[in-house]
Write a structure and sequence with these properties.
- Helix 2 crosses helix 3.
- 31% of the residues lie in helices and 27% in strands.
- The radius of gyration is 16 Å and the shape is globular.
- The strands form 2 sheets. Strands 1, 2, 3, 4 and 6 form a 5-stranded antiparallel beta sheet that branches.
Length: 153
């Protein structure tokens, strides 16, 4: 796959719009997972991911589903959900939970290709375009690596 054919201004704008609309949806406490199909193999997903410190102020966090957790230092901390985005293996049948969707994995060591990022509540249009470019470049890399047989779905 040629990067120049995929990472175009038009595609960057399309993905940036998707990211912004999805984040706006989750800021209003939307549920489930939003997806934008990129190919037969991959899609860009935006949804709630578990395990975030409730005291963190630079993430879009859920007002619900927080709970107390024991930290490594023995102190309790509040844990909850934050909005994440990632290119993952396309799943047209069960895409309601971001954390349960699969990343592709490397055949040699079984490590997943985790490209997820946590979305911020104060992102600008420029930020969304920057993230969109990065996700499109990641998609091209994943597709080419899949064709080489280095990763599996």
């Amino acid at each position: 796959m040629n990067k120049k054919d995929i990472v175009t201004k038009r595609n960057i704008e399309k993905v940036a719009d998707f990211l912004k609309e999805s984040c706006d949806y989750f800021k209003n406490q939307g549920e489930g997972c939003c997806h934008l199909n990129l190919s037969e193999d991959f899609a860009l997903y935006v949804g709630w991911s578990d395990g975030y410190d409730r005291a963190d102020t630079d993430i879009i966090k859920s007002k619900e589903s927080q709970r107390a957790m024991n930290g490594y230092d023995g102190k309790m901390w509040a844990c909850g959900y934050a909005v994440n985005a990632a290119v993952k293996v396309r799943n047209d049948f069960d895409c309601a939970d971001f954390d349960f969707l699969d990343y592709p994995y490397y055949k040699d060591d079984g490590e997943c290709w985790d490209n997820g990022i946590t979305m911020r509540p104060d992102q600008t249009r420029r930020d969304y375009r920057k993230d969109a470019r990065w996700f499109l470049e990641t998609f091209v890399s994943m597709t080419n690596t899949l064709k080489k047989g280095t990763i599996s779905l």
